[in-house]
């Protein structure tokens, strides 16, 4: 009896307790939540202390070393101050394959519209994008330390400088420069911290002359436009358009610029106070040289004329000869871009196959860079893509950081997906100075006639954000180059021509010169620079610009009433595009959709003549529209380019459709000649027998 009473009493107490707790459930939830935060904080503090101990024991600060998996350097460097635990984690989260120079965007949605991928250009593989946030936190710590270090260095340099020593040549940088180097750097860094937007110091336009080289007269027309849009330099990639002489004469194109032409370009650049940086290839992308029989023996892979074999003595002789001739014509340049991107073929020949591929690359680039620096006292620049997979220690051991300035390039919107935070940290440790490169054309399709301005604008906006975030990690983030590729390589067809890309160039130049994209600012200046008529000018009532990137990504409509140099070429691309669209509709209707002029009809010579006549009724309209474009193209192109470029562009973009239209007419005429036809069933096509079709199965 007593046990029963006790049991009832305990049950009653528990019920009352639960009832009381239920009434106070918000308080209980709050207590649990606070307790959880306290536990997490204690654990985080413990882990942080352990990381600090590990960092101290490994003789370096934050970001001392980054281990990135390289084909010939797996698991050789294990100190990782990003606390990514192991090389395996780095490999998992940052597997980077070699990119292409003309990298197209991925199949991703952006804030303007769908970006379609170029399958040839998907050469990256990156997992674990969520870990970028963790890397960003580490980078922010590193940023703070690096910026303070730069500020201290500037202060100490000023305090320790002895005025009596200023006559010493070693202190010339304090006096000869318009502004003290350290003061300028300190002031610039402070400005970048305080300002809301980032404006790159150098804003260079890249001219890719290996395809469709403009006449000198066209440079005279567009240089003032570039200056007004904010450009202050040019990057000249001559390839075979440079007038090489002597031993190198065979590599110059028959229509190469003359020495007087080169001098005229440089004189024009001087008028507009443009920094001029020549670019020559010294390792990869040497198709224009290695395609020739005279230089075939210098190839790394005999069947592929892309990369030089660095182990052959003549290779270095060849490279230095090119450098010497370029420098003779550009004796006042402060920088020389020596290329060195996309060297896909290394370590294949008998002399190279037993060497580490990273070391093959580093040894050759170092040797070339030393030659440039020691003989001409100019700073070499290289593309950065071949460095991205290399470990920090390996780059430091090569002394490349004191020899070259890398130019980081990518043409997508998501900069950090392709240049992740660990890569930036490695570059900050190795290289005091850095360049970046975006694109205004030649990045989103090998055969495009006109650039997609919205995609290029997104790329340039993304670079401004990245540079704003990263600039304090370097002594100098020199600036940005807007690349304008004319071919994806020397043996490819032409992509967007320079005149057709001028609207894209001006929009993107104005954006980077302003530090951000503001439609009112950009398109008011756009209308002024490109001489656009009032019908497409700034709407002062709505304070918005009449531009629709969704429906007019190429600016064909927005720039339809402009009058800039080469506008006829820009208009030509629209007219050709519309003609090709009409051809595709007609060709599909006649040869695929309808049943009387298909490939089957033509092979069997069997069709209804009446239906064939119906199919050919619109042929002349489509055909003569295409043939009329030939004359229009000649007139538009010859104002900017020589006869070879005029003929090449027409052959690539109009002539194929004329041939296809003529083939349709020829097939129609042949089909109509038949007056009688075979009785069905028709015998199987003999060629199908190789697939087992049409062979007899009867015994």
From TrEMBL:
Keywords: Hydrolase, Membrane, Transmembrane, Transmembrane helix. It catalyses: Hydrolysis of terminal non-reducing N-acetyl-D-hexosamine residues in N-acetyl-beta-D-hexosaminides. It is an enzyme of class 3 (hydrolase). Its EC number is 3.2.1.52. One of its GO terms (molecular function) is beta-N-acetylhexosaminidase activity. It holds the Pfam family Glyco_hydro_20. Residues 224-391 form the Glycoside hydrolase family 20 catalytic domain. Residues 72-83 have a biased composition (Low complexity). The chain crosses the membrane at residues 27-44. GO terms for biological process: carbohydrate metabolic process. InterPro entries: GH, Glyco_hydro_20_cat, HEXDC-like. Residues 49-59 have a biased composition (Polar residues). Residues 49-87 are annotated as: Disordered. Belongs to the glycosyl hydrolase 20 family. This is beta-N-acetylhexosaminidase. The lineage of its organism: Eukaryota, Metazoa, Ecdysozoa, Arthropoda, Chelicerata.
């Amino acid at each position: 009896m007593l046990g029963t009473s006790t049991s009832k009493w305990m049950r009653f107490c528990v019920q009352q307790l639960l009832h009381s707790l239920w009434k106070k459930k918000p308080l209980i939830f709050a207590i649990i939540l606070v307790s959880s935060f306290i536990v997490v904080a204690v654990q985080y503090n413990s882990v942080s202390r352990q990381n600090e101990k590990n960092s101290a024991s490994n003789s370096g600060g934050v970001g001392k070393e980054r281990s990135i998996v390289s084909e010939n350097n797996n698991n050789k460097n294990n100190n990782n101050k990003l606390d990514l635990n192991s090389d395996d984690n780095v490999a998992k989260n940052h597997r980077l394959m070699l990119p292409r120079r003309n990298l197209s965007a991925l199949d991703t949605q952006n804030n303007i519209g769908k970006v379609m991928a170029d399958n040839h250009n998907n050469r990256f593989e990156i997992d674990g994008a969520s870990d970028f946030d963790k890397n960003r936190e580490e980078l922010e710590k590193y940023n703070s330390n690096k910026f303070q270090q730069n500020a201290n260095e500037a202060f100490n340099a000023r305090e320790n400088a002895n005025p009596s020593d200023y006559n010493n040549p070693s202190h010339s940088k304090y006096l000869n420069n318009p502004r003290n180097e350290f003061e300028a750097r300190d002031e610039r860094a402070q400005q970048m911290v305080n300002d809301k937007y980032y404006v790159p110091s150098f804003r260079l336009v890249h001219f890719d002359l290996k395809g469709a080289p403009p006449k000198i007269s066209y440079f005279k027309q567009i240089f003032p436009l570039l200056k007004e849009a904010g450009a202050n330099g040019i990057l000249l990639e001559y390839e075979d358009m440079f007038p090489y002489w002597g031993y190198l004469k065979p590599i110059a194109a028959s229509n190469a610029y003359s020495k007087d032409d080169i001098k005229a370009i440089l004189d024009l650049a001087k008028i507009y106070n443009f920094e001029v940086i020549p670019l020559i290839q010294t390792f990869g992308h040497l198709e224009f040289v290695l395609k020739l029989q005279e230089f075939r023996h210098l190839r790394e892979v005999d069947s592929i004329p892309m990369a030089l074999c660095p182990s052959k003595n003549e290779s270095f002789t060849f490279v230095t000869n090119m450098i010497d001739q370029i420098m003779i014509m550009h004796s006042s340049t402060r920088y020389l871009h020596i290329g060195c991107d996309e060297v896909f073929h290394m370590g294949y020949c008998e002399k190279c196959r037993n060497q580490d591929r990273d070391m093959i690359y580093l040894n050759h680039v170092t040797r070339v860079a030393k030659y440039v620096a020691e003989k001409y006292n100019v700073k070499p620049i290289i593309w950065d893509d071949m460095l991205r997979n290399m470990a920090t220690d390996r780059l430091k051991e090569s002394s490349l950081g004191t020899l070259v300035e890398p130019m980081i390039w990518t043409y997508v919107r998501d900069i950090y997906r392709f240049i992740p935070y660990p890569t930036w940290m490695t570059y900050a440790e190795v290289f005091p100075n850095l360049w970046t490169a975006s694109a205004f054309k030649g990045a989103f399709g090998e055969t495009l006639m006109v650039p997609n301005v919205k995609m290029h604008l997104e790329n340039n906006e993304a670079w401004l954000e990245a540079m704003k975030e990263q600039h304090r990690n370097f002594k100098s983030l020199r600036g940005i180059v807007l690349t304008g590729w004319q071919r994806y390589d020397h043996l490819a067809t032409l992509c967007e021509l320079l005149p057709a890309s001028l609207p894209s160039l001006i929009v993107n130049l104005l954006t980077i010169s302003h530090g951000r994209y503001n439609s009112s600012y950009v398109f008011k200046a756009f209308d002024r620079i490109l001489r656009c008529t009032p019908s497409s000018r700034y709407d002062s009532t709505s304070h918005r610009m009449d531009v629709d990137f969704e429906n007019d990504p190429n600016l064909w409509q927005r720039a339809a009433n402009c009058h800039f140099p080469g506008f006829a070429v820009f208009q030509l691309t629209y007219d050709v595009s519309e003609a090709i669209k009409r051809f595709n509709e007609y060709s599909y209707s006649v040869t695929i959709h309808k049943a009387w002029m298909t490939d089957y009809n033509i092979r069997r010579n069997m069709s209804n003549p009446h239906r064939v006549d119906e199919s050919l009724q619109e042929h002349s309209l489509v055909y003569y529209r295409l043939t009329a474009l030939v004359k229009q193209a000649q007139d538009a192109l010859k104002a900017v380019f020589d006869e070879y470029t005029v003929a090449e562009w027409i052959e690539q973009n109009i002539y194929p459709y004329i041939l296809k239209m003529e083939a349709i007419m020829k097939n129609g005429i042949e089909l109509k000649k038949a007056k009688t036809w075979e009785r069905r069933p028709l015998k199987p096509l003999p060629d199908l027998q190789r697939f087992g079709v049409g062979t007899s199965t009867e015994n």
